Amino acid sequence: MATAKQLSVLRRALPASRLLSTAAASAAFLSVEDAAEDVISMKGVRISGRPLYLDMQATTPVDPRVLDAMLPFYLSRFGNPHSRTHLYGWESDAAVEAARCQVAALVGANPKEIFFTSGATESNNISVKGVMHFYRDKKRHVVTTQTEHKCVLDSCRHLQQEGFEVTYLPVRPDGLVDLDRLATAIRPDTGLVSVMAVNNEIGVVQPLKDIGCICKEKGVPFHTDAAQALGKIPIDVEKMGIGLMSLSGHKIYGPKGVGALYLRRRPRIRVEPQMSGGGQERGIRSGTVPTPLVVGMGAACEIATKEMDYDGRRIAALQERLLNGIRSRLDGVVINGSVEHRYPGNLNLSFAYVEGESLLMGLKEVAVSSGSACTSASLEPSYVLRALGVDEDMAHTSIRFGIGRFTTEAEIDRAIELTVKQVEKLREMSPLYEMVKEGIDIKSIQWAQH
Amino acid sequence: MSFLLSRPFASEESLIMVLPRFSQLGARFLKESGIVSFIGMVRYMYLEVEMVSYTDMTLWITVTFVDKDGEERVIQVPIGISMLEAAHENDIELEEDPADEENDMLDLAFGLTETSRLGCQVIAKPELDGMRLALPAATRNFAVDGFVPKPH
């Protein structure tokens, strides 16, 4: 096999302790001197060693305890959980049901209300499109916010194509939804209200309990995309009046490729399935349930139930450290989104008078994400930051730091170093910054046309 | 299948209208007999109802409701009208909300709608006079080749 051959060539060039994944090995080009100095060269960038990982909102590493729980289901207990006639099927099914209980326990739900899917994107699709299609004769309106995840917004746009009406509520400059506007936006023919629990870009936590109250009064199902919230903030579907909830495995130190959908039983909320087939998962989502992935998600949820408090406190301290470290050495640093109603592991900062793409290029030794166009597949700058009213130039310089269970203080300190150095370097070169230092108001400048 | 009344009903006994498992064979039977009336003497039968729809719009069902006083009411019902419309037209009180177990079984039915109920759970009451039912286009079984099992 070609990749195995390449891998063996690279293995000879590398010291034994450095193992690259097959994909990285086939993509990386290593010269002999590079190998000796431990330098990685990829996509035209040379860095010494693997970058620090501070992008926990994009994905998280799998907790070793979760991997331990998953492996037997790949190697020896590999049965199809829907096989009803033999031990392999029975034990697989038992494991899936146990995982279902673990996920349900984390959110305060009945295990019968949890359905496994391929991820939060699929759960969001089932929630938005499924609910509206089922009730299409009576309900023609959806209420959502402008800062939702793309899968929710795209599902809503798809519904608009089909003739439904969608209200995209604006948010306040701190990222929170205005409850009065939400209440007035709900109409008698509103079939769904969808507001995400914790925003993936800015980390803002929406007032779920209040929104749940409003929806309960008006008799409208409340859907929340809790992919970033699961295991990080306490969720109770009863107290928060949640009707549907999308959950993701790989944001809580579980495997990628699995997620779950919470669907309320009393009062029963029905959805039209998006995946047709043999009726698995009570017809809501047909397809063989991937036992190892589901067991992994269950294990991750169980660990989160136990460690949510501790992680929360530790991550809050790390966020303080990061923020103070940067703010003590730089001015013109703006936090995007509410400071009080925020999940501490997500810190989205904008650095004034710095060009975003150059900042990113200089931060190659820290794996972070940004709100600028170059990191988006569609070359569109972040619509979430635009909804907050952030100026385009500030949106371009936004960096999202994601802190997680395995982030160490040393990593935070190094990230502070690198960020501060890079920002200072860029500001040194920036004529805009010079002008600001001299006291000129940038907004009053008339730029000459070429 | 029809059960005849052998004695007047006591007031506490509930009457159950039971729709049996239909196949297309059953549909033909009904067409010929013209009557669908089921008055069971049993308390309740927990049947999973699998129903086939009749695309022939001239097919009518006669539904007989018997109230607690033993009064029979025979109604000719055309197929294809929903129960909800009937409720609105005739000012009928709908059955109380389905219980969890009924909802669980309904979840598995083909062609589920907002107003679906299990036939065995719709108990004959005086207020339900004039009820009309729409049947789904297929069952849980994948008889896409048109296979029809023998009735049993």
UniProtKB/TrEMBL annotation, chain A:
Residues 53-414 form the Aminotransferase class V domain. Its cofactor is pyridoxal 5'-phosphate. Belongs to the class-V pyridoxal-phosphate-dependent aminotransferase family. NifS/IscS subfamily. NCBIfam families: IscS, PRK14012.1. GO terms for cellular component: L-cysteine desulfurase complex; mitochondrion. The keyword Phosphoprotein does not apply. Keywords: Iron, Iron-sulfur, Metal-binding, Pyridoxal phosphate, Transferase. This is cysteine desulfurase. GO terms for molecular function: cysteine desulfurase activity; iron-sulfur cluster binding; metal ion binding; pyridoxal phosphate binding. HAMAP family: Cys_desulf_IscS. Its EC number is 2.8.1.7. The keyword Metal-binding applies. GO terms for biological process: [2Fe-2S] cluster assembly. InterPro entries: Aminotrans_V_dom, Aminotrans_V_PyrdxlP_BS, Cys_deSase_IscS, Cysteine_dSase, PyrdxlP-dep_Trfase, PyrdxlP-dep_Trfase_major, PyrdxlP-dep_Trfase_small. It comes from Cocos nucifera.
TrEMBL record, chain B:
GO terms for cellular component: mitochondrion. The keyword Metal-binding applies. The keyword Iron-sulfur applies. It comes from the Eukaryota. SUPFAM superfamilies: 2Fe-2S ferredoxin-like. GO terms for biological process: P450-containing electron transport chain. InterPro entries: 2Fe-2S_ferredoxin-like_sf (IPR036010), Adrenodoxin-like (IPR001055), Beta-grasp_dom_sf (IPR012675). Keywords: 2Fe-2S, Iron, Iron-sulfur, Metal-binding. GO terms for molecular function: 2 iron, 2 sulfur cluster binding; electron transfer activity; metal ion binding. PANTHER family: ADRENODOXIN-LIKE PROTEIN 1, MITOCHONDRIAL-RELATED, FERREDOXIN/ADRENODOXIN. This is Adrenodoxin-like protein 1, mitochondrial. It comes from Cocos nucifera.
